[in-house]
Queue: 2 jobs
Job 1
Amino acid sequence: MRHCSVQVRGLLTRDELDRYNALMEVGSYLESQLRHDLAYTVQKEIDLLIQPAIERLKDKGRARDKATQEYLDAKRLEAEQVDEDQE
């Protein structure tokens, strides 16, 4: 079974995380029984389950990028103001 990243796991709700852990346990058991055909189905279910958390992670990244851009724009304006004051 493929685990999702720690960042994604951190953004799962309590219910999603409980379901994720249960599905991982079932999938691991199926793999140990060499039932890879069924483990594949469980992995697909896990992939669907974690999609909302992946979107939340992307949203956090976009918000961070926007904040960084606003900070850099403010610094650029500040530097331009200092240059104008020195002239």
Note: Residues 6-86 form one domain.
Job 2
Amino acid sequence: MAQHEHVRVAVIGSGFGGLGAAVRLRREGITDFVILERAGSVGGTWRDNSYPGCACDVPSHLYSFSFAPNPEWPRTFSGQEHIRAYLEHVADTFGLRPHLRLNHEVTMMRWDGDELHWVIESANGSTVLADVVVSATGPLSDPKMPDIPGLADFPGKVFHSARWDHDADLTGKRVAMIGTGASAIQIVPSIQPKAAKLTLFQRTPPWVMPRMDRTISGAERWLHRTLPFTGTARRGLLWGIRELQVSAFTKHPDQLGLVERIAKSNMARSIKDPVLRAKLTPSYRIGCKRILLSSAYYPALARPNVDVVASGLAEVRGSTVVASDGTEAEVDAIVFGTGFHVTDMPIAERVVGAEGGTLAESWKGGMQALRGASAAGFPNWMTIIGPNTGLGNSSMILMIEAQLNYMADYLRQLDVLGGRVALDARPSAVGSWNRRVQERMKRTVWNTGGCTSWYLDANGRNTTVWPGTTAEFRKVTRTVDLSEYQVVRVPAQRDARPAVAEEVAG
């Protein structure tokens, strides 16, 4: 019988969520874990997204771990290369390299109810057994490519923003940019000066606010390095400002009118053509889709070598791209900025639970997980950045750290229970949590703002965003309530009978 590595915890992914989980495990005294990473290096989405102009839209000092402050951030909004370097630094500083298993793409995770562990198979043929799985694959990890008729026969370069082809020289080329999301508004200003012609296919215009980015001075960096509490104070101020904004998104969308006027002024400064301005003006409430930040996007669109087509891409005929409204353009390259599989994450197809079904099947009617972490029927399996943990205005690192608190207490509870044991979220608890979240979601701008966004799943339900403050989420994920779980133990005799589920008093 083949011998497989057996660990206490298997972490899937090495982006912010995975590395954060690994650091927290070590701080809890747990060293019996591995980090399974499909690529050849750490970094997650900040490794995969290396397109021109790639940067974060959350201030640097807030977009970093509280336990790993970086006084050397070079800009107020850091670029991809700096964030990736920060994650490499975290891996080194906290001694995570020995736990890393690079080039280990998980192809299947199957719960073994007899042995009470997960059997994790990787594409390289290896198998790991884990008592607990922490899935930190992230919602922005698998690019979404639309099924466009004729695309396979396009003679030029075709790639997604998250899989940028650095061998493709766009200088002097006719380029089609598909989509106007967060990636596209950074790509457009970066490639516009070198492209002979840039045609932007826009299904829905975004709201774009000015990007107040600047170089962080040497004096500021010295201050944060010498007096660390100043960096902590800066982070706290950035956090507090965003917490105060939450009610406008979640309870009083009418208060966003001022923000809307600022965004329109941002457009008016650069877009003088009334026809183009009409194309670029959204018809939905600001905040319904993610508010984008750029001071270079509108100036780029006003350049003579840029055309904005107010319609999505419908067909490709040879080197001709055709929009839904019939507009045609001859292009040499097509760049897709069409987002990711967020509400239909491919990893869910690879997780097989206690009843033999996949997580994707369990979530067919919409993703839901207890406190954004635990899915019913999937014992000792937790997800970081799970259903309804996303944010519309602040740093996801805050939400990740809150979930790491929950993960740590989850493991403590297993220790207290003793023996070979697992926790399985009760369907009633998951359902109750989800109903409360969805009820609160009804008032939010994401549901009432009049748009269709990637926050919504195929059924029109908002299964991605948290309808509250980060402080509130941290409070509800501080500890595990055992009454929301079934305690599962190894059967007394190894036969076909299922494991016993203990009732735990609330």
Note: Residues 228-250 form the longest helix (23 residues).
